[in-house]
TrEMBL record:
Entry annotated with the keyword NADP: no
UniProt domain HTH merR-type: residue ranges: 1-68
Extent of the signal sequence: none
Organism taxonomic ancestry: Bacteria, Bacillati, Actinomycetota, Actinomycetes, Streptosporangiales
Alphabetized UniProt keyword annotations: DNA-binding, Repressor, Transcription, Transcription regulation
Record's keyword annotation contains Ribosomal protein: no
Protein name: MerR family transcriptional regulator
Pfam families noted in UniProt: MerR_1 (PF13411)
Length: 129
């Protein structure tokens, strides 16, 4: 199948499919005219890529994990994969903690600002930038 059909069948843009090829996630054959030709397994591969992206994995980790995934996006034991997944989970935990701290600071700032306004109905005027 050509790239347009793969895009239609997976709901993924042709641009993204070309990107997946560029980063080594998809490996289509090339026809004599230069067109990309995908086999039927490409549909399942793109679906697994999309699921792994939705799980928060960057493409560099997906490149390592993808050969070890099954149709159900389960991961079979492959060297280094479990460590890569644990590292990604740690990174997500760190980001989550950073976001929680930023949210807390913003919430306290809003509360302090509102308290300084007292009982006044006036609110500071904000402008869109």
């Amino acid at each position: 199948m050509l790239i347009g059909e793969l895009a239609a069948r997976t709901g993924t843009s042709e641009r993204l499919l070309r990107y997946y090829e560029r980063v080594g996630l998809l490996r289509p054959e090339r026809e004599p005219n230069g067109y990309r030709a995908y086999d039927e397994t490409a549909v399942e591969t793109v679906e697994r890529i999309r699921a792994l992206l939705a799980a928060g994995l960057p493409t560099r980790v997906i490149r390592q994990v993808l050969p070890c995934t099954t149709a159900e996006t389960a991961v079979a034991p492959c060297p280094g994969v479990l460590n890569a997944l644990r590292e990604q989970l740690d990174a997500l935990d760190r980001r989550s903690a950073e976001i929680a701290a930023a949210r807390s600071l913003l919430s306290r700032t809003i509360a302090a600002t509102e308290a300084s306004l007292g009982d006044s109905d006036e609110r500071p005027v904000t402008t869109a930038s």
